[in-house]
Specification:
disordered N terminus, 25% helix, 3 helices, mainly alpha
Amino acid sequence: MSSRGSAHSPSRASTSSTITGAPPEGYSGCFFCGEHHYSADCTQVTSLVERITRVAGAGNCLRCLYHHSPDHCRRQKDCIHCGSHYHHNALCNRNRYVKDDIVGNPKLFYDQMAALAHFNYEEQQPTKE
């Protein structure tokens, strides 16, 4: 996983670099490997299950990859690969850099991972006294 951990700030662009070119100056790097390319274009972590599990495990949002509660995501852009509003381009089974290795019902898997992301995010928040 990226050394940036759960505080990592992923791609601000919603399109893959194959369309927009290299990431802009100041881009923090791929969520999955930390290299200077968009997370959707990562060739080092190609397993869809691994990508989704890493995002959810860090308590990050599946729609934008940022570290906030998925319930409060303000991302308005749909996935460029399939049009879904429920996952980031990097987490789409139609992304050419992704190996779709989800076994069983994909919607159920995404729903379970969204719940895990929410749980992990909440667990990382300071306790209120």
